[in-house]
Amino acid sequence: MAAVLNDAFYLQDLHFTIDGMDTHYFLKLGSVESDLSLMGMTVGRRTLETGVNVTVSQVNAVLNGRTRRITDIRLQYGALSLNTRYGSSLDEEKARVLELARQRAVAQAWTRERQRLREGEEGSRAWTEGEKQQLLGSGKVAGYDGYYVVSVDQFPELSDSVNNIHFMRQSEMGRRYTLITRQVAALSNSVNFLPSSCSTK
User: Fold this and answer.
1) Which pLDDT score is estimated for 174?
2) Enclosing H/E stretch for 106
3) pLDDT at 128 exceeding the cut of 50
4) Which one of 11, 31, 130, 200 has the lowest number of neighbouring Cβ atoms within 10 Å?
């Protein structure tokens, strides 16, 4: 199975523990046909003599207006899972893996929030009584979503951390973005008035 990982790009900062599996992601450019030929399969699952479980899935996807065939090969041995994707760009694959991580983190955050209310504890924010009942009943509150506290651009290892999620309305996100924009603008203006001796070259 070394042939599958040969010349593949490793998404180094995007490895997670998912359902007890040490999960890693790779991207491989070029055709998948030669690797599929080596494995003797095009889709489905089989267990090799070495004990490695191989799962191959293929789907046609529209990315940036173009239809492409996406192939995923998953190698699983014990608690190790190696996932290699063919047919995407590096940026597309990073974005996909990050979004999957965000979805896991948000789902875990809703589960934890619901459990807190069930145990009579305070939630992570001041929910109204109606919102509490909705959360206890359906597991979510309409109009809210989970957002990162710390940017995963700088700390990608926090992208699936339940502790890096807080719940906000979309309108609150808009106000937060406006505030940050104003702060950045104010900082930029102050930099413009620095003495020339402080400028960098």
Assistant:
1) 60
2) helix 90-118
3) yes
4) 200
